[in-house]
Amino acid sequence: MSGASGGSVGNASFFALQKNRNNMMFENTKRYFDNDFLTYTLARMLGPDYFRHLLAFIPMYDRAAALEYAHEKVPNEEIISAAMAAPFDIEMEQKNGTLNPILYINTTVMQNGVPAVVSNLNIDSILNNNRVDVLELLVDSTVLKLSTAAILSARFPYMSPAGKISTMAIGNERNSLYFVDGGYFDNSGAGVVTETIQHLDRLINKNKAKYGHIAGKVEFVVLHITNSPKSKLKFEKTPALQNDLFAPVKTLAGSYSKQTDINDLRLKKLLALIKERSITHTSYNDIPLYNSAVPNEKPYSMNWFMSDDCKSRMIERFKNCSELSEVIKDANTKRLNYKTKTLNENSMAKQEANHLGFNKKRYL
User: Would you say 134 and 107 are in contact if contact means Cβ atoms under 8 Å apart?
Assistant: First the structure.
């Protein structure tokens, strides 16, 4: 699971539910995101944060810490909020032998724009791309909560200040790094997913003696959940004065979104290339919040507090999303085929065992 900005908060909440899988997961999620994460944060921004730098000797939470606190103290919801307040390494622990999903929380280093990741995977072992592994930089005595990790990816301009982590060991020096929204570099999280799939594909194809037998059993299925309307590429006329005064600003603003589009396209092309040159199956599935069949659809406002109308329309869209229904149908078909194949293989194995005179009970 990979995301940036608010998508990382959503992924973190889903990750928190993995230890408590039950039929109430949807209700837990709904209760959690019914909460108002904005008011307490805004009160800090318009109040104590004005004086915090003048009265530095008085300890007080800033608006970013207030946002984390709001995610940890959600009324009428205990599972996700408790996990958000827990140390990230505690939430990484497996339960009952089940494997947790790989979680990539994407953020950006403010000082130099380098992408960074908080993950339950040691990314240095698979990604050789100079991404900063945030957990690797922390000294042993430092604890990073799940809420801190999630909000580290969702620090919107001005609403949340850059997150400072000062207890870092880089060589023999102590340094402070500041982290801002992951969307500055990659707003979908597709970049780190592309690199992970490339690594797995290389393992399978370059170590065929070790992994070749699983090549035909591996399938790369990407579910790309988007929450913004798709827009067609268009070029608007630029007045001469605007060109002279605002060309750098307009270019930077435009490249901010297009960089994400390019990362998404790279992932699509990688899957197409793998499918073309190997027996590994791949598929790329867009699951959009906006319904392309509805002209002039009302916008979904993505904020720390959403109106009841916006939330109810999102739930209705979730229940009637044809793209999502197709993915679920395809997954169920594959699961049924797998079960049928497994049953047939077991039946043949039993017949062979009986034919060879094996003790049936011991063989099974």
Answer: yes
Tens digits of pLDDT across the chain (364 residues):
999 988 999 999 998 888 777 777 888 888 898 888 888 888 888 888 777 777 766 667 788 888 888 999 998 888 899 899 988 877 777 666 667 888 999 999 988 888 899 998 887 756 656 788 888 888 767 788 999 999 999 887 777 888 888 755 555 566 788 898 888 888 888 999 999 998 888 888 777 777 777 777 788 999 999 988 876 666 667 777 666 666 777 777 677 667 788 889 999 999 999 888 877 788 999 999 999 888 888 888 888 888 899 999 999 999 999 999 999 998 888 888 777 777 776 676 666 555 555 443 333 3
- Cβ neighbors of 157 (< 8 A, separation 6 or more) are 181
Strands (E) across the chain are located at: 2-4, 104-109, 115-119, 132-133, 163-170, 173-181, 219-226, 281-288
Residues 138/144, Cβ–Cβ less than 8 Å: yes
- Is 155 within 8 Å of 164 (Cβ atoms)? no
Reference 141, options 68, 104, 180, 89; nearest CA is 89
For residue 277, CA distances in Å to 6, 234, 272, 274, 280 come to 36, 35, 9, 6, 9
pTM of the model: 0.83
User: What is d(CA 119, CA 122) in angstroms, rounded to the nearest whole number?
Assistant: 7
Beta-carbon contacts of residue 197 (< 8 Å; ≥ 6 apart): 220, 267, 270, 271, 274
